[in-house]
Amino acid sequence: MTPSRDRLITLVEDLSPAAVNPVLVHSFSGFMDAGSSAQLAVNHLLDNCDERIVATFDSDELIDYRARRPKMIFDRNRFINADMPRITLREVLDDRGTPFLLLSGPEPDYRWNEFLGSVRWLVRELNVGLSVGLVGIPWPVPHTRPIGMTWHGTDQRLYEGHTSTLGVIEVPGHMQALIEWSLGQHDHDAMGLAVHVPHYLTQFEYPRAAIALLRGLAVATGLQLPTDGLEEQAQQAEDEIERQTSDSEEFDPLLRALEEQYDSGLEPGYEPDEDEQRSSTPLPNADEIGLQVERFLAEMDDRGDAGG
């Protein structure tokens, strides 16, 4: 029997009447998000769209506060604020007023199986039509070329026309991927968008990748999502990248090599538009790509084990 409520979730508001089979977008901070791509995209949506909280999760059951110590504000002789980490579900309106759901916050530290069950309960309770996870992953590509993206999902029709150069690789589990897998096991449509961030920029904020995620999300769901504010941030970031790399004698040969590798995989006569959303980045050796991704994920896994 399907439970009428869930132990980890408190529903605080009903969905608006227009939220019929809404899209559920999900992204979690704290583990894997190269270039802070998904986090930038989520923050941009919350800053630029009408939104309201419709459900909260029990943070005390899910979050290790010693690993994610709350930020506090001290003003002269007293504490005036404590920003406790929390996981929330929000109803967000796109630029046309179409409601969708946004599940975000820190990746849970505890009770992963129970959390996945809670997400499945939400999907059933709110009649979610499609869930989409957002993440940034490292890729051996130059920042001077159009950004690529890997589409994946529980059914081929969800990523039809978007091929991938990746083969079979083993990666550490993370919540975006587990939600997709778990929903697929229970016959719900679920997919993910993984934007390709130049591997030498993974530790820096890269707004251009956040723009690519939002545009990919719009294509996948039909939502109309704002990106204007991110364009200015992306240009500033690219100016800073140029400033920091222009004086490096070691970086220029690396960049030229990545550009040649990228260009050699393009079909003859292809001239990509800078705004074009490409389904994958052509590279000559899928095994090398897999090794690069696995190496990055292993490093991030080690940091997570150390409580970083």
Largest sheet features:
8 strands, mixed
Order of helices and strands: EEHEHEEEEHEEHEHHHH
- What is the residue-mean pLDDT, rounded to a whole number? 86
Spatial strand order of the main sheet: 1-3-6-7-2-8-10-9
Q: Level of helix content?
A: 25-40%
Q: How many domain regions?
A: 1
Fraction of residues in β-strands: 15-25%
- Give the C-alpha Rg: 20 Å
Oligomer: single chain
Remind me, CATH topology? Rossmann fold
Low-pLDDT stretches:
266-286
Number of helices: 8
Q: Can you walk through the features of this model?
A:
By secondary structure, the chain is of the alpha/beta class. The chain has one domain: Rossmann fold (3-Layer(aba) Sandwich), CATH 3.40.50.10900. Helices cover 35% and strands 21% of the residues. α3 (112-125) crosses α4 (175-185).
Defining key terms:
308 residues; single chain; Rossmann fold; globular; alpha/beta; 8 helices; 8-stranded mixed β-sheet
Compact summary:
The protein is an alpha/beta fold.
Secondary-structure blueprint of this entry?
Elements lengths: L8 E3 L11 E7 L7 H12 L2 E7 L1 H4 L8 E5 L2 E6 L4 E6 L5 E8 L5 H14 L4 E10 L9 E5 L21 H11 L4 E9 L8 H15 L6 H19 L4 H14 L21 H20 L3
Parallel strand pairs: 2-7, 2-8, 8-10
Antiparallel strand pairs: 1-3, 3-6, 4-5, 6-7, 9-10
